[in-house]
Amino acid sequence: MKAGVWRGPDQLKLEDHVEPKVEPGSVLLKVESCAICGSDLRILKHGNERIQAPRIIGHEISGTVTAVGDGVQNFKAGDHVAVGADIPCGECEHCLNGRGNCCDINLAMGYQFDGGFANYVLLPKVMVDHGPVHKFSKDLDFDRAALAEPLACCLNGYERGLMEPGRTVVVFGAGPIGVMLSLLAGYYKAPKVILIDPSQDRLDLAAKLLEVTPINPLNTDPVKAVMDLTEGQGAGMIFTACSVRETHEQALKMVSKRGVVNLFGGLPKGTEPISLDSNFIHYREAYVTGSHGSTPEQHKKALELIESGQVDVAPLISHRYSLNQLEEAFEMAQSKTGLKVIVKPNE
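Request: output the structure for the sequence above.
Response:
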């Protein structure tokens, strides 16, 4: 089979690879769609401490079951399934208490296990037993089903943010995740969504897809703008869906009383720590949290929201490529001229 193999920084090669064989407890999947995530772009450039080369990457996956190993009861050949990234070990305190994304081992598809930029992917027993693997009907297309993974991460962000109806939502970053967080704000009944990004092209694209108030920080002080738009109250739910240090500090200055700042996007290693006015947080009774990945339950909920039409992710898909065009697909994702880029390994 063909596979996109990461062999080191800036080395993603399309190679002939041995097709995986089912083992007891495992499931073999023909990959129909695998979307490119921002973390895939970072892996391409810098690697990841959980990845040892060579590794097939890609973790926003959907496909068709072609074979199951001995002992597998819940899946059969022909099933359409969506696959998430984070795999609970099923044994540590976090996994046993429903916090699988905080697992002490921190396993993931496309990291310790081969991922979805290939004709086929093997879901190991630990993934089948404990991970985010969920069936969906043949009425749902594979492209949208693959986006259950990033949508689940956004759901986790809102849940960690204790989101309530009526809160104004601010999102720093108009990339794919920032736009998805903005899209999900409607599901949580946010009356206003403010989207902040220095790329006017990205803001314009988002404004065509969603009802958002765009702010370009190159032209406007975003803290003042948000305070003005909220009549001096600040925003009740703020996400930093980007890796820019300044946005983390700005977010902390615009939070409302009892509002929440979710530092959704991590900062590069070596970044100078942010400064925090603890009195501002203290007297506002505000909350500062983070969120990382998602749980299998959140992945299931995300897939249900997509399949039921409650959250329409289709407009976020801007480009599709075959596996033979993997290099072009990554170039498009890196160019920041589109949103979600889907790779179709078997087309």
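The mean pLDDT is 97.
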